Amino acid sequence: MNYRIRARMEGGTRRLEVVEAGSGALRMVWESAQNTPSDEPPELGLLRREAELHGLFRRLFLLSAGDDLLRPLASESG
């Protein structure tokens, strides 16, 4: 399946949308954490952002794995 990825910043929040290219259906939305406490140590902020990115890639992997699992079913029915 082909996708279009829309990425933007909304008030300091990173937002990513994955849309099916053919149908235009929204398949996934991801947003970064909005507010960072001002007294947070830089190391903790770095770890939090890294965990957010790991979560994003995990969701992208699951989206593509789901497509791979559905592909044999679609070929059997057609």
Question: What does it look like?
Answer:
The protein is α+β, with helices and mostly antiparallel strands. The chain has one domain. 46% of the residues lie in helices and 28% in strands. It has 1 helix and 3 strands; from the N terminus they run βββα. The radius of gyration is 17 Å and the shape is elongated. It starts with a strand and ends with a helix. The model has no long low-confidence stretch (mean pLDDT 85).
Task: Name the descriptors.
1 helix; single chain; alpha+beta; 78 residues; 28% strand; three-stranded antiparallel beta sheet; 3 strands
Brief write-up:
This protein is of the alpha+beta class and 78 residues long.
Identify the quaternary structure here: single chain
Number of domains: 1
Structural class: alpha+beta
Largest sheet: 3 strands, antiparallel
Helix content percent band: 40-55%
Spatial extent as radius of gyration: 17 Å
Question: Strands of the largest sheet, in order across it?
Answer: 1-2-3
Shape: elongated
Mean pLDDT, to the nearest integer, reads 85
Strand proportion, as a percent range, falls in 25-35%
First and last CA, distance = 16 Å
List the total number of helices.
1
